[in-house]
Amino acid sequence: MFPIVGLGLVGAGCSGPLSALDPAGPAAGGIFTLMSVLLALATLSFVVIFGLFLLALRRNRGHSVSLRLFLIGGGLVFPLSLLTVATVYAVVLGERITGARETPALTVEATAQQWRWQFTRQMPSGSVSRTDILDIPAGRTVAVMVSSDDVIHSFWVPRLGGKIDAIPGTRNRILIRADVPGRYGGVCAEFCGVGHTQMSFAVVAHDAAAWDRLEQGGQP
Amino acid sequence: MSALKLHGELDAIWGVPRGWRGVLTSVNHSDLGIRFMVAAGIYFCIGGLLAMLIRAQLATPRSAFVGPEIYNQIFTMHGSLMMFMFAIPFFEGLAMYMLPKLLGSRDLAFPRLSAFGWWCYLFGGFILLVAMGLGVAPDGGWFMYTPLASKTYTPGINADVWLLGITFVEVSAVCASIEITVSVLKLRAPGMSLGKMPIFAWYILVTALMMVVGFPPLILASTLLEIERAFGWPFFDPQRGGNPLLWQHLFWLFGHPEVYIIFLPAAGVVSTVLPVMVRHPLLGYGWIVGSILVLGFFSFGLWVHHMFATGIPHLALALFSVASALVAVPSVVQLFAWLATMWAGRPQMRLPMLYIAGFFFTFLLGGLTGVMLAMVPFNWQVHDTAFVTAHLHYVLVGGFVFPMLAGLYYWLPRLAARRSHPLLGQLAFWLIFVGFNATFLVMHLTGLLGMPRRVSTYESGLGWEWLNLFSSIGSFVMTFGFATVVIDVGLAIAFGRRSSRNPWRASTLEWAMPIPAPSYNFASLPHVESREPLDRHHRLARSLAQGEGYLGRGRCGLRETTGVDMISGEVTEVVILPGNSGLPIVTALTLGVFFLSLLLGVYWLAPAALLAVTALAWRWASALGAQADLGALPIGLGQAVPPHHEAKDAPGWWGSIFALITDATFFASLLFGYAFLATVGPGWPPPQLAQPSLAATVVVFLAALAAFLAERSALTAAQNGRLQDATRAYAGAFGALLFGLLALLAFGWLGLPSPRDHAYGAVTWMLVGYGSVHGFVALVMLAFVMRRIGTGHVSPARLLEPRIVRLWLHYTLFAMLLGLVAIAIPGAASWRW
């Protein structure tokens, strides 16, 4: 199945506007690499275990088996070694993505409501607020402080990184960075009522010149 | 005695009246097990039809088949029905039907409880179905996150239908968990030690134990949310000190073990059927038992992996990530034990084995994507997308439906006395297998391309069109497959050729009885000396039918089966089971009145219904026991043991222990909620703390002490045969406890802030309420035991009831005092008289 998905990725083109397989920033890129490694390990496990199953089906006379080989080798050593690799890699990557030591270039407030997003940033010219569009400078790390005015929503821009929930009474932080200027689709990922489907937004990454104009109070 | 005459004698004792009377009063485990499975099968069909509506809606972009209001009800009901009305009841039914037969027993430990659970399940399901018919079905997703499910954002009755309907159904799950645990531990054939139990019983035992502690957090969460919705106590409202994440913690504290609660029985079917199909005994029995114990234990430490995107610090997530990865290991151990068994045996590709192959393929993929999801950064990306939908269907269909179909075809001769034609079953398999993978394999990719869960429509141009269409086509193929199974089984029951008694040449006891199963299962009970009793005694079935085993004749019209030492399996008592009764259905109906009164907002009726339930429980308990000491009863094969109410470890004793564990888990979850809100709830510390009244506190403590001592002397007096002294001391305990209960209520009244202003007040009132309800129940029990002394049901040899009352009383006193301490210590700054 994993080879089939792999083929699907190549064949179908994985570059939709909301595709996690077409990363455009370091977080999404790191996760894409992690996914590839996990897929490889999963494929290996699947081939070994299901292969053994198919081979065993073809046996028509009983054999003595080494229970120790099956249970300790197959049941313990085999999964534990693969899981160790995967987990260590994932934890290190997770630390990098959450970037505890990184200082973001800009902090933006993202407030979710049924069923829209309000993005607010402090500019030299005062506070600027836009609905359903989040302006960021390309190539720089932006901290988005995510909260909600009513029910739980979730902030997700697949091409830039993972998601973080917008929870009333809580402010959650997520770091995003778009490597190149452009428009990146975002959606509410947590079911939030009848308007859930329509609760999409866009992240617009501006090049340096355009961002300067915005900072001066210009219109996008 | 001839087998036929013995059959007549036992059937007169164990049989069920003909017609409606029998339907309404039967407590027979075979009847009830089949009813559970049939009803669960019907709910599977309803859930499947809802899934078809979902796939019809999503087949094309911008579909206008149904609007979001209806669509939200459809997917919520699909998930809720499949989880709560299909998967759990189906395996409960299988366990109820199969366990006594596998364990060499005549019924389960608490037959009326099985029947009560059945009626609760049926009536609770009706609430959901009627709501769906009226268009007011739950619409907040099957995990009902707050605040979306709170009154402000779901003002209608929809959420209440879920909270009350599902809780009503969970009453049945809790009953089943206690029933099954005690039955596996106590009601086995003599000689069957734990190590000689069929492996299926181990799986079901671990599952039932997980249910004992797995369901209370969800029941608590539902209770709190319903109280918030009905009376405005703000447990989850962040503006008044509540926290919406408390719901998620409690829900997934149940919800993650739930996945294993569903998987383990199915794995038990694989461990039972696969060795028969490969003609070799199961290898690695001890390893498997160890790995399912580990699995059951660890599954309670993973719930946070459903909450990786909620903003919990990453290093805390990493801990749960490691645990979630490690929990794969016991499953891999099982896979390799099965592989080793296949390797050692000579596999035959008969129909059940085909479905097991489907299980291997599907479940393995689900497990592997599960490990991927356990990795935090990857989870951030695919959480709440179609990838997760695909994953969970691989786990649940692969890990439950395929093995259960294998089990269905394997046990069809046992259940229906008929055999199906393998061709139709094979066709069904390929339709399901191909259809399933067509639906869900591509859905992984849909999720990676950014499609969130639970969207009712989508735009074209996102790369999702052909994937969704492909999934929808696949799902219709799969539906044809399931329809073929239904037709196949129907044809087999109607026209199939009669099965021989042991068609697969299996070696477990369920094949050592006539087909179809008689009401009493075994005309006499075997002495079990190995895990495969049928191997050594080819004549076992006939000799049991002729009454050559234990309890091979009727005695005074009593329903008798053997109770054994939990570990060694040595026979310790004759368990006398209650007969057919209308009490289960009447009690379930009365409980239904309670739930309906809450649902419809007729609140004055709710306490009345609960009082009626209490009165019925009194009658329920009165029907048991004996008014004279019977001493050791001969049970055949030269042995004699006392009846269970004269034995130390009676099933009722252990039933009480496990019921208390359930209850204590509920209480612990409440204390967890209190601590959670106090640590992370926004708006804490609360504006107004409790001002505990010292006088009331002291009275509660003294009254508890007095009740404790009075009960002690009462039981001692009963042990020594001074029954009048005992009654008097029980009356003292009753008085003291009543005083303590009133003081506890006064403590709340005098010192606690309003439960509506802040979550603190709400939680502390919950603690007082918990203690008070238990105080009330303990009072009823003390009164009951006094009455039983009066009617001659208690003697120095028959102390089961006083001992159980002691257990409950001690727990009640503990809960009352712990609740007080939990309230009073943080508020100690402002003590007053």
Helicity range of the residues of chain A?
A: 25-40%
Coarse morphology of chain A: elongated
**Biggest interface and residues each:** A-B, 89 and 95 residues
- Round the Cα radius of gyration of chain B to an integer and report it: 27 Å
* Strand order across the largest sheet of chain A: 3-2-1-5-8
Strand content of chain B: under 5%
Let me know the largest β-sheet of chain B.
2 strands, antiparallel
Helix vs. strand class of chain B: mainly alpha
In spatial order, strands of the major sheet of chain B run 1-2
Question: Got a strand count of chain A?
Answer: 10
Low-confidence stretches of chain B: none
Secondary-structure element pattern of chain A, one letter each: HHHEEEEEEEEEEH
What kind of oligomer do you see? heterodimer
Radius of gyration of chain A: 23 Å
Q: What secondary-structure arrangement, pairings included, does this model have?
A:
The complex is a heterodimer of chains A (220) and B (833).
Chain A: H1 2-12, H2 26-57, H3 67-98, E1 106-113, E2 116-123, E3 126-131, E4 133-137, E5 142-148, E6 153-156, E7 163-166, E8 172-176, E9 182-188, E10 200-206, H4 208-215
Parallel strand pairs in A: 1-5, 4-10
Antiparallel strand pairs in A: 1-2, 2-3, 5-8, 6-7, 6-9, 9-10
Helix pairs in contact in A: 2-3
Chain B: H1 3-14, H2 19-25, H3 29-58, H4 68-103, H5 111-133, H6 158-186, H7 199-231, H8 244-278, H9 285-298, H10 314-326, H11 328-344, H12 351-374, H13 376-382, H14 386-416, E1 418-419, H15 422-448, H16 465-495, E2 497-498, H17 533-536, H18 540-545, E3 559-564, E4 571-577, H19 583-599, H20 605-622, E5 633-636, E6 639-641, H21 651-680, H22 694-719, H23 723-751, H24 759-790, H25 800-824
Antiparallel strand pairs in B: 1-2, 3-4, 5-6
Helix pairs in contact in B: 3-4, 3-5, 3-16, 4-5, 4-6, 4-8, 5-6, 5-19, 6-7, 6-19, 6-21, 7-8, 7-9, 7-21, 8-11, 8-14, 9-11, 12-14, 12-15, 14-15, 15-16, 19-20, 21-24, 21-25, 22-23, 22-25, 23-24, 24-25
